[in-house]
Write a structure and sequence with these properties.
Blueprint lengths: L3 E2 L8 E2 L10 H14 E2 L8 H4 L5 E6 L5 H9 L3 E6 L3 H13 L5 E4 L3 H7 L6 E7 L17 H10 E11 L2 H12 L4 E3 L17 H8 L5 E7 L2
Parallel strand pairs: 3-6, 4-5, 4-7, 5-6, 7-8
Antiparallel strand pairs: 1-2, 8-10, 9-10
Length: 233
């Protein structure tokens, strides 16, 4: 998972991901090359206007760091009236998602292979999102790296500016320390309410598909923590 954010007073933006491109499989490379014109978008294309891009869709949900794209593809297949905008910096994952979309005839997804914070800042209009998803981001578990975590007060306010009133920010992590960090930051964030009540996590909603990696972790006794925050003001 990916992304970066910054806090007030810093001289440069902190990257909360390491750009490990890895190797394309032949199928991922072919999908990326052939399907990007259909699904791919870039910051250089300008603002993302839902009415122009996917006029039949009534809602818009933004996923930060979709990894290999299994969750995003499943969500889009379930709900054809919602537009899904996915952002991922790792190109093999983008290629995999494009292949999944094409194989399943999905056309309500648009993809950015860029930094999600920059996409939010430069492309996504204010008060335009019905939901934001952040599932299993890099936990940066070493204390000296905690500042690289994407969930920070400034990031929460960026999301607030892009969500509609009533829009929701859904987070999930399998690192307990990061779950506690998310809870602390978001419970204190102006304009948001914790749908489970301050200091509480939610049970995994049926709306969030379980990944194979997550299912394996649960079998091994690993915990998973979900949080949902609603924009109230």
């Amino acid at each position: 998972m990916s992304d970066d954010t910054s806090t007030a007073g810093e001289q440069h933006r902190i990257r909360s991901f390491v750009l490990r491109q890895g190797r394309f499989t032949p199928a991922q490379k072919r999908a990326y090359d052939e399907l990007w014109p259909r699904y791919g978008r870039s910051i250089a294309d300008g603002r993302f206007e839902l009415a122009a891009e996917l006029p039949r869709c009534k809602r818009c949900v933004f996923e930060i760091g979709f990894g290999m794209g299994y969750t995003l593809a499943e969500l889009a297949m379930r709900d054809h009236e919602t537009a899904y905008v996915g952002v991922e910096v790792h190109r093999p994952g983008v290629g995999k998602l494009l292949a999944l979309l094409d194989e399943n005839g999905v056309d309500n997804v648009r993809v950015y292979n860029e930094d999600a914070v920059e996409v939010l800042e430069q492309v996504i209009p204010e008060h335009s999102l019905d939901g934001v998803l952040l599932f299993f981001p890099d936990p940066w578990h070493k204390k000296r790296h905690n500042k690289r975590r994407i969930v920070q007060p400034a990031f929460a306010q960026l999301l607030r500016s892009r969500l509609k009133i009533g829009g929701e920010f859904h987070l999930a992590t399998d690192w307990e320390n990061y779950a506690e960090h998310m809870l602390e930051v978001m419970d204190a964030a102006d304009g948001f309410s914790n749908v489970a009540g301050k200091g509480h996590f939610v049970e995994r909603p049926a709306s969030r598909p379980q990944t194979r990696f997550e299912q394996r972790g649960i079998r091994l006794g690993h915990g998973v923590w979900d949080l949902i925050y609603r924009r109230e003001s």
